């Protein structure tokens, strides 16, 4: 058995030894020994979009896969620490997440799915409403949420299907979608004839679509989520908060795709500039190395695009879309506590720092409990190495009766990661209307833009990333052929 | 514009001209001009399983795709008649049908989805209960069905998830699944404390999972369907009875996959014998032509396998599974009536001949209405060219107030089609327990078995076919590589 390599990404804090940067991960890979100056296609980014695009293209085109990091997976990767697997980014899988599920079954990894105890059978559900931590029994929780969700999209005598009848074709009913895209989810909630506590409860739930606040999530965008996940709280939890991948985690899927790819690859190579002429495109790294290709698939995250030089430059509209970006800019913290807590799920919104916190099933060591949390985009915690602040954030999400001690926490501060500059994407009001089609269009004739951040289906998810990878590969395959 | 070729499959009957065999279809293709004697892989069957397997393999292996028919698509194909598109077999699409949806988006065909009027907004819902045709308003219908479905799987204090927690991994909870796999759906219905009319109503609904009767559908098998489709009647209708593909129909998807395939192909070549030795496999056609290959992917439908000679022969268990087969052996009839009827959906069970009948949206000609129906497996109609019987079958599904005249009907008699010998697959009680793993296993070292009929997920659907094609291609890719 070879030792698991260590990525520069992520950090671990321990009560005993303090902070250490970098985490072991099977997502770390080496560059090709020999690279060429010219390729048919260069794929920028080895997240799930780039991995699937490169895999689909390499039999048909001389391909180079290039990434800024020392590892594959982008905003999704699994760290292996002390025999435990920790998902440092994307983690939820389900068979209604079309593209990801297809890949899992293709590589026979789907039988490895497992569940997170806090979301499956929580004994307690907490929801923090400003300064009060409410304790709900699971049963009433779902019914209450279902009723509120039904009211949320029951607008102007329309049904959800009247607004979003086709979640993979955003503008299928362009006029009506764009009408409701003007409204924020918070505005919609404010207009409901429900109790104030229910408004906060519903806003907290919907804020999790984007790790932001409901005023930063478009109403039509939220409707699109409900259209994909089903409309009951059970469906929503099932599809995006219940099943995760055991036995290697999400990196096992990334590695399965990467293993199939036989083209060239180069890591630790942030891209500085992408140039195109009538005859070819050139990709230059920060280190000054240049590669030429007929076509480039650019999978750089939306919030990072503004920092890369494109020549000729982006259209004014695309440049504006990149400057605005998407609002999700939190980070992920995984706590190890002792003794373990019984399964629970806790959610909150500002001014609390964590959006949610729940127990997971990784309880193999008898005296340790593992918990997953996401730090809110607008949390006051700006530096995750501040152990006191991170510990206080945990305390705010559990009742005072919880006396467990935090032994360790590991994190990926996605906001301050220069190659992500954010978590998952969920659009603000009017963003789809203004920018989506521009973002999805080619930049010039030779640069195909592809990212989970502007996918059609499960936007912001691993599934959307794979959708974009498969579609961009088909686009390039056709361009090369004709 | 080239003329649409005509397949030998299907028939059209017209009031004016009587019966004519064969129907125009863009699924008809020519064989390769030059074939070889030896390949890396031979894929038997150009249905969706074979198409995807061949497409995924051809860049990595010298591949031959062979089919008994003059067309691609297997049990799914679109006929083009007088400017209308008619789905002669599989037709429903939805984004929760993982593999099919992935392919639709890959080829940018997903924006072509449309709906069938009779299942979307039926003005009337009829259900025939022996000799009485009930007329239900749509509203009460769904609520009634939802309550009955909930009772159906509320057994021994278990929830649906307790029985089938993972629809793509049938034996994930082997003991409990196999316990309930012993029971038929009819036995489960009979045990419910509900009115007799509700029993018939529920049995009729569930019988449509297999185009048979509820006593021929395993209870655990029915639970698996609910697990895939969601558990409400709305979810079920959405996922498998609402959206179809416009602008070319399902054959446009088959053609997109086939267009990407660049290997050899031969049509009109039923396979007579598949032989394997330690070093290679040989496929012989009825015409006496033999092709050799390292590996064979056999996608011949379950009910047809018994008629093909395998040497060495199948294991006794697989041979038994093939002899039993699956019970769905009906056929499809599409009626053209004048004048059109307002949107309706009608369903029934034995002794009525049609399992269901509904209006579709293909109402482009002002004076014509189009309807889709499936003939029940145990219908007394044994010959679809018997126009009087086919017309009487229609009359039994609509009230006497419907005076529309049948101008034309087209059909594919799947039961009597030697290369299908059935419609879609839904297992009887105990069939999964006894045979599923054996059917999915390789036959010897060189013949990989793959069919929608024993897929893990959407078994019996186009989706299951693509699942099997993608997985079998991966299996062969690994075998070739190592």
Automatic annotation (TrEMBL), chains A, B:
Pfam family, one: Amino_oxidase
Domain Amine oxidase span(s) in chain numbering: 48-476
Transmembrane segments: none
UniProt GO molecular function: monoamine oxidase activity
Residues that, per the record, bind substrate: 374
Annotated catalysed reactions: a secondary aliphatic amine + O2 + H2O = a primary amine + an aldehyde + H2O2
Taxonomy, superkingdom: Eukaryota
Class of the enzyme per the UniProt entry, highest EC level: oxidoreductase
Known EC number: 1.4.3.-
Key word Lipid metabolism present: no
Binding site for FAD: 49, 271
UniProt keyword terms in alphabetical order: FAD, Flavoprotein, Oxidoreductase
Family assignment from sequence similarity: Belongs to the flavin monoamine oxidase family.
Stated name of the protein: Amine oxidase
Organism: Coleophoma cylindrospora
């Amino acid at each position: 058995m070879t030792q698991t390599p260590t990525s520069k990404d992520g950090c671990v804090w321990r009560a005993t030894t303090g902070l250490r940067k970098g985490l072991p991960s099977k997502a770390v890979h080496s560059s090709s020994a020999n690279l060429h100056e010219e390729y048919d296609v260069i794929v920028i980014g080895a997240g799930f979009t780039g991995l699937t695009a490169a895999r689909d293209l390499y039999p048909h085109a001389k391909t180079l896969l290039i990434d800024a990091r020392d590892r594959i997976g982008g905003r999704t990767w699994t760290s292996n620490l002390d025999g435990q697997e920790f998902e440092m980014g994307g983690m939820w899988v389900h068979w209604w997440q079309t593209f990801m599920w297809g890949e899992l079954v293709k590589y026979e990894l789907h039988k490895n799915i497992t569940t997170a105890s806090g979301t499956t059978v929580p004994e307690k559900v907490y929801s923090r409403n400003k300064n009060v931590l409410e304790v709900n029994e699971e049963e009433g929780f779902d019914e209450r949420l279902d009723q509120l969700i039904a009211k949320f999209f029951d607008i102007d005598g329309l049904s959800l299907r009247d607004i979003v009848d086709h979640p993979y074709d955003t503008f299928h009913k362009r006029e009506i979608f764009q009408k409701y895209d003007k409204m924020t989810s918070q505005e919609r909630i404010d207009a409901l004839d429900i109790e104030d506590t229910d408004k906060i409860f519903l806003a907290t739930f919907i804020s999790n679509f984007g790790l932001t606040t409901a005023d930063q999530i478009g109403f039509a965008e939220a409707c699109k989520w409900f259209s994909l996940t089903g409309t009951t709280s059970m469906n929503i939890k099932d599809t995006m908060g219940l099943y995760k991948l055991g036995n290697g985690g999400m990196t096992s899927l990334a590695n399965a795709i990467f293993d199939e790819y036989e083209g060239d690859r180069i890591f630790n190579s942030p891209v500085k500039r992408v140039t195109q002429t009538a005859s070819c495109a050139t990709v230059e790294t920060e280190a000054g190395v240049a590669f030429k290709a007929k076509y480039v698939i650019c999978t750089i995250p939306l919030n990072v695009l503004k920092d890369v030089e494109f020549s000729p430059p982006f259209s004014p509209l695309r440049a504006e879309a990149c400057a605005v970006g998407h609002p999700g800019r939190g980070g992920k913290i995984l706590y190890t506590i002792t003794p373990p807590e019984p399964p629970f799920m806790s959610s909150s919104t500002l001014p609390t720092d964590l959006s949610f916190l729940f127990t997971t099933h990784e309880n193999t060591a008898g005296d340790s409990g593992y918990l997953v949390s996401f730090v809110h985009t607008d949390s006051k915690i700006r530096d995750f190495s501040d152990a006191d602040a991170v510990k206080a954030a945990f305390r705010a999400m559990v009742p005072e009766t919880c006396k467990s001690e935090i032994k360790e926490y590991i994190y990926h501060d996605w906001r301050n990661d220069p190659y992500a500059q954010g978590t998952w994407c969920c659009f603000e009001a009017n963003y789809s209307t203004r920018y989506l089609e521009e973002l999805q269009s080619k930049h010039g004739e030779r640069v195909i833009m592809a990212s989970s951040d502007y996918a059609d289906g499960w936007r912001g998810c691993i599934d959307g990333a794979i959708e974009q990878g498969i579609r961009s590969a088909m686009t390039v395959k056709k361009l090369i052929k004709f």
